[in-house]
Amino acid sequence: MEPALNLFKWKHYEAELILLTVRWYLKYSLSYRDLTEMMKERGLNIAHTTIMRPVHQFGPEIDKRIRPFLKSTNDSYRVDETYIKVKGKWMYLYRAVDSKGSTIDFMLATNRDVDAAKRFFKKALSSPHNQSPRVITVDKNPAYPPTLQQLTNEKVLSKETLIRQTKYLNNIVEQDHRFIKKITNPMLGFKSFLTADKTLKGIECMHMIRKGQAECNHSPVLSTVELINRLFGLAA
Fold it and tell me: At what angle do helices 220-231 and 48-66 cross, to 10 degrees?
């Protein structure tokens, strides 16, 4: 992992200001042009592209750097996909939360099939902050049963894991989708899969911080600032 302070080398603006705009964009329902107007009120003329590039750079960085700070999730997985528009086409954001609503993991995919579902489960099961599932609840997506059977056969998943395929029990993850869509809707779709993936990683991480999944202390707002600054080696 690249040293945090090196990421700000040769940047036109100070690290604190860069992280401020990135944090606001990923956390609130704002467009890039909303942010440029907000910065203008502070006496700063920042082009929306000057905000966009750091969002694409630091979204994945936040995702990498926050993992060691995440609290353990529980062993009841609730898995579902939501739709994200990329270059005018719908793609699939695989998401899983536990029975208390904490985010287990997420992954953007171009398809809704066995291969995509398998990659998502392997990603979730390999994350150190996640427990091995006692039960996995999925919806009626026909790709899930063969995916989970393959993972069991490959001993990635325990034979003791209970698989429940019922939409009713997945309300908690469907409700959680709304927070992500609330942030992405003002963006009016992404221009490419890569930029969508990078941005969504940052959005999901800010959502995890909001839900109290990261090791923070003080008030929710201050703890977010402090944690993000800490991740990038800046004084809070």
Answer: 90
pLDDT in tens, 40-91: 998 989 888 888 999 999 999 999 999 998 999 999 999 999 999 999 999 9
pTM, entire model: 0.91
DSSP code at position 131: P
Ordered structural domains, the chain, with CATH: 4-70+188-231 (no CATH), 76-179 (3.30.420.10)
Element (H, E) at 116: helix 114-126
Instruction: Provide Rg for the chain, Cα atoms.
Output: 18
List, for residues 134-143, the tens digit of each pLDDT value: 999 998 899 9
As a whole number of angstroms, the distance between CA 183 and CA 179 comes to 7
Burial class (CB in 10 A: 0-12, 13-18, 19+), 25: buried
Burial of 24 (0-12, 13-18, 19+ CB in 10 A): middle
